[in-house]
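Could you show me some protein's one-letter sequence and the numbers that encode its backbone in two labelled lines?

___
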Amino acid sequence: MDKKAALASGSDHGATGGEVAGPGGCGSSFASLRAYGRALAQTPRRVAWRACAATAPGDEMSRVRARSGARMARALRWWDLVGLGLGGMVGAGVFVATGRATRLYAGPGVVVSYAIAGLCALLSAFCYTEFAVDMPVAGGAFSYLRVTFGELAAFLTGANLIMEYVFSNAAVARSFTAYLGTAVGVDAPSKWRIPVPGLPEGFNQVDLVAVGVILLISVCICYSTKESSVVNMVLTAVHVAFILFIIVIGFVHGDARNLTRPADPSHNPGGFFPHGAMGVFNGAAMVYLSYIGYDAVSTMAEEVERPARDIPIGVSGSVVVVTALYCLMAASMSMLLPYDAIDPDSPFSGAFRGRPGMAWVSNVIGAGASLGILTSLMVAMLGQARYLCVIGRSGVMPAWLARVNPRTATPVNASAFLGLFTAALALFTELDILLNLVCIGTLFVFYMVANAVVYRRYVGGGELGRPRSAWPTLAFLLAFSLAALSFTLVWKLAPPERGVRTGLLAACGALAVATVAAFQALVPQAHTPELWGVPGMPWVPAASVFLNVFLLGSLDRPSYVRFGFFSVAALLVYVLYSVHASYDAEGSSAAGLDGGGAKVQDEACTV
């Protein structure tokens, strides 16, 4: 059978047998208006074939990666990844999150809240690490979901994640102006932003400082990933030194009695846990937002010299170090002031504001927060460019975005495009999304990756061997998610009477534990990772699923409205463009234009 006949056969019979269907020419769906009209008429058939089409890991590492042309340079080691993880997580938002969690929920017990949140972040990081070690490509969660649940699920989550990156980066860049002003004693919003009469409120303050910061970082990450890592390492080291200074100042000038004594005992309870276990866990849900950023490290997997060793150390090590820093910061702040006297919006600055001769500490905090913003922006922009690069490789976005510059070995096109887009938003738009205030897209991706690890271990398929029936695993994932959702709804909505809420929570928790235990006993694993795997399967990813469902339930209505809007917009893009571009790209692959699909290690990658 010749190639044309094979393509026609594949198109008629869908994705059976792992065959590739397509029109046989890259871009043929968009060659003319007539061709596009014919493509739209075939949309239901193409969506049915492509939406659940899962790519083999070997294809992601060879045939799909080859669409970028030049390879990214494998120049990162575990210490680079630890530095990138620290830079991505420890931003300005931690100052706000600590104050709010202490004042509103946990009191001095916020130290335990940070420890719990750090453990939960570590569980989620384990799920990312298993994928990143087995499939060291730049796509992060997009690639992991594409090889597990198919193209549509990966595209919707990836599109939401990139939009969240762009909007939050624009907001963070504008907040850099305010923190830099605090560091030098200037009212930056009024002095450094240019008002433009006639524009609507919220779009009438031009921030050239924010634009300059974004463009400068964009140039840096386009030039070299290794040099960007070095710059991040230097800035992160100085930022951590600022944080350690604040911690030491807090312990030196603090009072241990503030850990158990409120400022107003007549109106506020005392003790280390003034609001009990519920306050500690509510505080953990709030401060967990300060750990967002470690996921961007997984997008560096394609540029890591020894993935099997460096990625587990880099991702897990950064989470552990950040947890220690956060716990010390929380303890330091709790000693400076009683929990009910802490300013929830500026806890550290407020603690020193009334102390004679200590007003200069506010300037130090502003300088440290400014550095934290720079490192967070750099890591986030590195991550978002690699997400977009791999989305371009997959064929669902223009291939131009996937190109890797042969001289710099970086995805210059994706970096420049997102840098300009983010700078345009930051120039005019006042976005009230702080750096570490989690967005629903990020949590949803964490939830999906944890499910994907379980599915891949217990179903297998592709290069992992003959797949087992997916229904037992899918039934478990659905049942466990419903149990986690029930627990979350009871936590939020059950009457405050102690007996009622406690009983319902215990019942939901017992149901969740029983579901995992039954699944572990009845369904054997279909695949065991060769190099590194999540320990305690399926308990660890199940705990990550449970946590992310709980946190998703704590978000407000506007978050779901934004997520729904982005998802509908992404679905329209997929139906009108991406599914047809993907169909064409797979047709080119079937015609032999892309190369082989065997799983390979490139020359610079060592185990």
